[in-house]
Amino acid sequence: MYESFRSHCLQDYPEYELLFGVADPNDPAVDLVERLRQEFPQCTIKLIRCDKQHGANGKVSALVQLTAAAKHEIFLVNDSDIRVEPDYLRTVSTELQEKNVGLVTCLYRGIPTRTISSRIEALGISTDFSAGVLAAQLIEGGVHFGLGSTLAFRRSELEAIGGFNAIVDYLADDYELGNRIADRGARVILSRKVVETFLPAYDLTGFLRHQLRWARTVRASRPGGYAGLLFTFTLPWAILCAVLAGGATWALALLVAAVSTRILAALVGGILALRDREVLRSLWLLPLRDVLALAVWAGGVFGRKITWRGETFELKNGKLNRVE
Question: What range defines the domain where residue 277 resides?
Fold first, then answer.
């Protein structure tokens, strides 16, 4: 986390401030922010106590309070595990100045630990999730949502959609922010910058729980698109076809074609688009990842409950409702 924080202090940009919000004064991040202040006394770094609960989403509740303390017109929100390059802020803020752009967001690479589950999640981000974002951009004639890895926008755009208070009960706050800005007629664009997110050392249970929360988040935000995902699991369907056909030549030929196409898509998306060198090292995990993804998709269909930040919620129309 400290190296991620530190990367935001190394920006080639003339004037900016870093706002860190914590609800608990004993949060371990507090010590890291103090350490950051000592290493970078020339940077404007503020640690703000965000102990008021404005809604079910604790992150957005903090953002409501950080907004009141921010002094600049341009806001950039990202998660605490995001690491960026020195030209990141200059690039994103320049892209925000393009004609009719209301929000800039970024694709990201997952940096795994050594556990198999962590590597599978990183592989899924680079070969499936990011590909889905690019496909949505192509099919829908643009991006109409944001990603939590980067949300850059103007204060005026935020105020026009009702501020963070308007989305404080939604789980997919990044999606809602981008979607509402897009609904007003402004463009949401993908930056040419790709950032990095650092993944936990998941065991299988932790991995499946996180994937299931992610799946139910997508279903709540884009139910039609989520249903359509069923037809994109090419590799599991091709394996099932070969088994049911009793190993017939035509079915095996389809399986070979499916495997070849899946690998090619993974390499193009992961290496050419995201420049993720980890894809090659983890490519052998792709069949397992795709089979697990189908199982997670099914789990996302049947159920509304999620566990997030130690609390249990039920999703209803994309909103979080605490389960007692």
Answer: 73-322
CA angle 69, 72, 78 (to 5 degrees): 75
Residue with tokens 């690019």: 134
Tens-place pLDDT, residues 193-208: 999 999 999 999 999 9
Q: Minimal CA–CA distance to 10: which of 71, 81, 87?
A: 87
The tokens of 9 are what?
Answer: 């202090």
Contact criterion met (CB below 8 Å) for 107 and 130:
yes
CB atoms within 10 A of CB 46: 15
Determine the average pLDDT of the residues in 152-178.
Answer: 95
Nearest to 20 by CA among 197, 43, 174: 43
Number of domains in the chain: 1
Of the pLDDT bands very low, low, confident and very high (cuts 50, 70, 90), residue 324 is low
SS3 category, 143: strand
Asked if residue 56 belongs to a domain, the reply is: no
The reply to whether 14 falls in a domain is: no
3-state secondary structure of 315: strand
Q: Which of 63, 209, 49, 86 is nearest to 148 (CA)?
A: 63
Examine residue 167 and state whether it is found in any structural domain, yes or no.
yes
In CATH, what number is assigned to the domain containing residue 242?
3.90.550
Both tokens assigned to 105: 């967001």
Among the ranges given (24-28, 185-189, 190-194, 315-319), the one the predictor scored with the smallest mean pLDDT: 315-319
How does the average pLDDT of the chain come out, rounded? 93
Query: Could you tell me if 196 and 82 are in contact, meaning their C-beta atoms sit under 8 angstroms apart?
Result: yes
Q: How many CA atoms lie within 13 A of 91 on its CB side?
A: 16
Tens digit of each residue's pLDDT (9 = 90 or more) over 242-257 = 999 999 999 999 999 9
Q: How confident is the model at residue 313 (pLDDT cuts 50, 70, 90)?
A: confident
The CA distance from 188 to 279, in Å, is 28
pLDDT at 67 over 90: yes
